[in-house]
Amino acid sequence: MKLYGLIGYPLSHSFSKGFFAEKFxxxxxxxxxxxxxxxxxxxxxxKLLEQQPTLCGLNVxxxxxxxxxxxxxxxSPAAEQxxxxxxxxxxxxxxxxxxxxxxxxxxxxxxxxxxxHTHALILGTGGAAKAVMFVxxxxxxxxxxxxxxxxxxxxxxxxxxxxxxxxxxxxINTSPLGMYPxxxxxxxxxxxxxxxxxxxxxxxYNPEKTLFxxxxxxxxxxxxNGHEMLVLQAEASWEIWNEKQ
Length: 245
Known about the structure:
Elements: E1 2-8, H1 16-26, E2 32-38, H2 45-51, E3 55-60, E4 74-75, H3 77-82, E5 87-91, E6 94-98, H4 100-109, E7 120-123, H5 127-138, E8 143-147, E9 154-156, H6 162-167, E10 170-173, E11 199-202, H7 211-218, E12 222-224, H8 227-243
Parallel strand pairs: 1-2, 1-3, 4-6, 7-8, 7-10, 8-9, 10-11, 11-12
Antiparallel strand pairs: 3-5, 5-6
Helix pairs in contact: 4-5, 4-8
Domain Shikimate dehydrogenase substrate binding N-terminal: 6-88
Pathway: Metabolic intermediate biosynthesis; chorismate biosynthesis; chorismate from D-erythrose 4-phosphate and phosphoenolpyruvate: step 4/7
Keywords: Amino-acid biosynthesis, Aromatic amino acid biosynthesis, Oxidoreductase
């Protein structure tokens, strides 16, 4: 039996276990199992490896995408540049870290892009924002990063006027604003400046339509939530785990 799993904390509402259970059942995969491994501290990771010697692969979620780096032997180019890992492949005694958030986001975003989608606003500066930056750079889409606090290379929400919104026809929310249960919150944007030429993408998938997306849709913008990205990053992990078996 090949064992895969998810580390993070807490994992009570994790997507991955249900996704892989359904995948294994639907595809008749009988020799694989996927389990949640909640770790209250990343220092528990070596103990988990001792307890589960048959592990073939792990997904990594909040808050350990960066903290797990000392325990991997190699990094993919994307994971190295971003400085975050959400997928680990165990093979030939080595642990290799990947970032399949990049794959999921890129595969989800590309079909939505139109010729007028030339510049992007990235809302937030966390690990997810770094994955989004990596993809936009790969697609040669210039971007501006927005945060509540002023810092080098980053603008504040207060500086976002109608001209800035008009010039950035892709707006990507990587912050937790609007996530369940705080569904009545949204990034502070001049939403009345959004038009039918805009694409609003929210990495949040619960609720299905955040206040950020609702307000963009009301202005005629194209909208997309993070569910497909989540599915695609999980499928990318599965591809990685099986490509060298």
